[in-house]
Each structure stands twice: as structure tokens, then as C-alpha cells.
Amino acid sequence: MAATRGDVMNSAEMLPQCEFTKSSYFAFPQRASGSNSIRVPRERHTDVAPARTVLGKRSKMRKSPAFYLASAVTGLALSVLTAAIPAQAQTAADAALDLANMLDGAGGGVSGDAYLSALEDAADAGQPMAMWQLGTMYENGEGVAKDPAKAFGYFAQIANQHADAAPRGVESDIVAQSFVKMGDYYRKGVPDAGIPADIERSHALLLHAATYFGDADAQYRVGLLYLQPEGLGVNPLQSARWFSLAARKGHCLAQARLGDMLFNGMDGIEAQPIEGLMWLNLSHTRCSGTSDQAQVAELLKRASSQARPEDRANAEALALSIAPQFADF
């Protein structure tokens, strides 16, 4: 029997569950004490429910004058960000970027080396925001030489140390996105870090970000995997459910995919042209000005050309009435 609108939208009870704890399951590289290099241990395989391990001692923080200066500026920037930025209006990942911009424009008082040293010390002390900033720097080659192995190491430390952290909090998005990045790394492997491709682990990491942390980008990616034979197996109904979860969090590509599926209908999903067009209109607005704008515009154009005029009008009215719900995303 074809799924109804309620079947697609009410999906919590059918979500696959994936639980992780701090463990050697992630086998992350560790930075040797007193060195900027990454030491990659031999990968340790565990069962699906790995045993909890004890994390090693962190290296002591260097107490150079440059460190004190950078730490003071870092602390000031963090306090300003914490006080000035609404929790729902900005994520911790955005805060990390703003922190970098603030330090970069600190009147020349903090050098690049001092900033990097301060971030490394904060990472050694277990600060996820510092690990995230270093991971993205090494991933993209921003301010440092591009180094996938080091980027992998920092993202893996976040994932391993905070796998069972509270799913709601100022740093939860950083942890969730670290799981997403780890999933990407395991999908292709990291030869420089001695990490082979592992599709099953890639999927497990992505599912943890999508289920436990409820990360919208992870949920969108899981939705895509349910449309790929080599992913989680073709299951349009499951795909629509995951797209629905991400769409309701304001993920514009998830909104577009969900809208396209609902408008056209698929095996197990009856066509719902008005609701489908509504999501496509919402997506078109939210993706405006991004790199995804063109593909969303094409989906909307194709659906609109096939829809009845009254369905288009009703869908646009619905989109306008619902749009304010996504203002804070």
C-alpha cells in the first residue's frame, strides 16, 4: 500500500539506531608529545559494540610568552562570542570560524605561529573547538600545509572523545560533523595515515551523527544512501523519511529531494503534488545564493511545468506560511 503523508513525516519509530561510546573503534592517530607530527597506531578492530578504553594522558601545555598572549586573546574572543551570539543563530563550527577571524584581525598582536601553538595546546587540553579548527586548517591547507593525515587525526579525536556527549549543546554540532567527516575519510581511506577504505564503518559513523546527534547534513546523506544500491540499499520510503527529518531542520537540499519525491511519487510513496511543490519552493528560497541553487531551481522548474496552476498557487501559499518556521536555522 502506498505511504501517506503521515507515514513519511512521522518517522522516529523507524529510524535505525547506532550507538557508540568512547572506544578504540575509531583508532585515531595521536600527535606525539612535543611534536607537530601525527603518530598513527596500528588499527585495532573491535566488535560492533566495542569496549570502553582509557584515554592516554594529554601532553603538558607549553608556557611560552606567545602562548599566554594567544590564550588571552582566545579567551577574550570566546567570551565575546559566547555572550554575543544566540545559541540557535550560530553553531560552534561558526563560532570557531569567527574566533579565527577575530584572532586574524587582532591588530598584529598574535602571530600565525602563536595562534597555531595556542590551538594545539587547547587541543591537547581536550577542547573540541580547537581540534575542529586545526582539523579544518589541515584539511583545507589554511594557514598550514595541507595534511589529510593530521586532519583525520583531529576529527577522529573529537569523535572518539565525545561520541557519547550530550546531543544538544554548543559543541554538539562540531562533534556530529566530525562523525560526518570521519565517514567521508573512511569511505575513501586515508593512505597517508595508513587508514584503508571501510564502507561499513563509514556508514556506521554517518548513522551515529544522524541518529544520536540528529545532525541535518548527516540525515540528508543517509537519505541519499537509501537511493544507492551500493549505499544502504534502494528504499525510497526510508530515503524520504530521512530527507523529511533533515528538511524540517532547514536543510535546503533535503527539502528539494523530499519535494521532488513527494511531487512525483515513487514505489511506496503516492504522489502529493502540492506538498512536493511546497518543499521545492522552500528549498529554492533557502538555497538561493549557494552552490546548490542551480540544481534546486531545475527541480522546481520541472515540477512547476507539470503542475496544475491551482496546485502551484496552493503550494506557494503554503511555502510562504511555513517559511518563518525555518528563520532560526
What are the low-pLDDT stretches, counting only 5+ consecutive residues below 50?
A: 1-89, 106-110
Order of the strands making up the biggest sheet? 1-2
Class inferred from helices and paired strands? mainly alpha
> Residue-averaged pLDDT, rounded?
74
Q: SSE order in H/E notation?
A: HEEHHHHHHHHHHHHH
Which of globular, elongated, flat, extended, rod-shaped describes the shape? Answer: elongated
Query: How many β strands by DSSP?
Result: 2
Q: Give the termini separation.
A: 35 Å
Number of helices: 14
Q: How would you describe this protein?
A:
By secondary structure, the protein is mostly helical. Helices cover 56% and strands 1% of the residues. The chain has 14 helices and two strands, in the order H-E-E-H-H-H-H-H-H-H-H-H-H-H-H-H. It has helices at 5-9, 65-84, 92-104, 112-124, 128-140, 148-161, 172-188, 199-211, 216-225, 236-247, 252-264, 273-286, 293-306, 309-322, and strands spanning 30-31, 38-39. Strand 1 (30-31) and strand 2 form a beta hairpin. Helix 2 (65-84) packs across helix 4 (112-124), helix 5 runs antiparallel to helix 6 and helix 6 (148-161) packs across helix 7 (172-188). Mean pLDDT is 74; it is low at 1-89 and 106-110.
Compact description:
The chain is mainly alpha-helical and 329 residues long.
Secondary structure layout plus pairing:
Blueprint: H1 5-9, E1 30-31, E2 38-39, H2 65-84, H3 92-104, H4 112-124, H5 128-140, H6 148-161, H7 172-188, H8 199-211, H9 216-225, H10 236-247, H11 252-264, H12 273-286, H13 293-306, H14 309-322
Antiparallel strand pairs: 1-2
